[in-house]
Amino acid sequence: MGVLASALIEQGLNEEANLVIDFIRANRRPIAELSDAHTRAMYGLFEYGEKEAKILIKIAEDIIETLQTLEEKIFG
Q: d(Cα 19, Cα 67) in Å, to the nearest integer?
């Protein structure tokens, strides 16, 4: 998402970039946990409890929602 924010800034879409940056700042830990979950899934077995799984699903849904909002702002 950081790469996306940088690309938006390069295109002069500062308001949209700030949307992404604010999302990252507000969700830094869950995003890191989601990234870690992806790595663990790719390279080995790891089990998550229900609570942890719900947190990961929620942040994934929030990322998708944020990207859909961004898409609507940019492309209408």
A: 10
Domain ranges of the chain: 2-75
pLDDT tens, position by position, 34-49: 988 888 888 877 778 8
Backbone dihedral angles phi then psi of residue 66, each to the nearest 5 degrees: -65, -40
Residues 6+ apart with CB under 8 A from 74: 13, 16
Tokens describing residue 70: 């961004």
pLDDT at res. 31:
94
What is residue 11's DSSP assignment?
T
Instruction: State the amino acid at position 32 in one-letter form.
Output: A
